[in-house]
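Support reply, case 0932

Customer input (verbatim):
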Amino acid sequence: MKPVVRKPINDPVLSFFDDFLSQQLARFENPVKDVVPSVNIKENDKEVIIEVAAPGLTKKDFEVSVENNTLTISAHKEVEKLDEGTNYVKKEFGYENFQRSFTLPEEVFDVENIKATYKNGVLELVIPKREEQQKKVKKIQIS
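Our regenerated output:
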């Protein structure tokens, strides 16, 4: 992608709108502040696995909690200071806070035994199902 070189606009009104529109367009080109990480959710008979794509973080950046049957995954990473003397044309590295929440029916999931690991940019949560749910099979009579 070629860098965009912009010529200064001398008209103050046009300059204002140009700056405003540039900022609005930049939000669509680089929506870093509005980022919500993507997730994969897998299920089998024994557990549900939630994978959260969060590259560039460390396990210390995350907080995972369950309150009132709501699993909340959040992260906070301080944006690194810019190198003094470095002339950035554009800087996109840096993460803001994010949060995702999921409702976990207490009667289905064993929230006391959730396990979490962070490896290769993916936070993985393994949420075991309660044994009653694992064995519970209801046969339906066909009439």
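We compared this against your earlier run and they match. Two observations from our side: The chain has two helices and seven strands. Residues 36-81+93-135 form a domain with the Immunoglobulin-like fold (CATH 2.60.40.790). Please reopen the case if you see a mismatch on your end.
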